[in-house]
Give the backbone structure.
Amino acid sequence: MIQLVEVTKQFDGKRQVTALDHVSLHIPKGQMVSIIGASGSGKSTLLNLVGGLDKPTRGTIALDGEKLNEVSDDDLTRVRRDKIGFIFQFFNLLPTLSCLENVSLPLHLRGWTRKKCEARARELLDLVQLGKRLEHLPEELSGGERQRVAIARALSVYPPVLLADEPTGNLDSSTGEEILRLIRDLHQRLNATVVIVTHDRNVAESCERTIRLRDGRIVEDTLR
């Protein structure tokens, strides 16, 4: 499903920084993987490359057989839209839109009818146990509820790949465990490939595979 071959990512500034250094990695369909490491180890860079938000300096990244670093910008946008769901630490919900509208938005951008968008959004909000919060604004929700809305939005097209960047990092421990259980449940129910970047050892160990980065290189790859 996800294949990286000799991927290097460098950033140029006053001095050149190598965020990833010759990383090769294969993640099969349906696997739930955690990426761990100290700040600056390359975790978020790796996630951004897999998600098509950035391109490598060298090497190849393929998603479901499609080489992301070789496609046009339009095709890359299509891949992100149709195949990848993103969950962020700070939710990234639009504050003036209701829960229903936040989840519906990606579907409107696909050209779906309003009725179809709202039906899917209601279905997803029910799935994350927020069916009674459809008209609430983000500021009217708890942190855990906002993350549930963000997860519902990420799942709007039932993407085969779900990428999460510190999904519990902005939550208290109890709410974080609740969100993690939800992600695991959705992973099993939808058979999505899930990649979670985290500093939390409990989150990492809940996944069937953990990859540790140090200085832009894979130093450990554990399958449970």
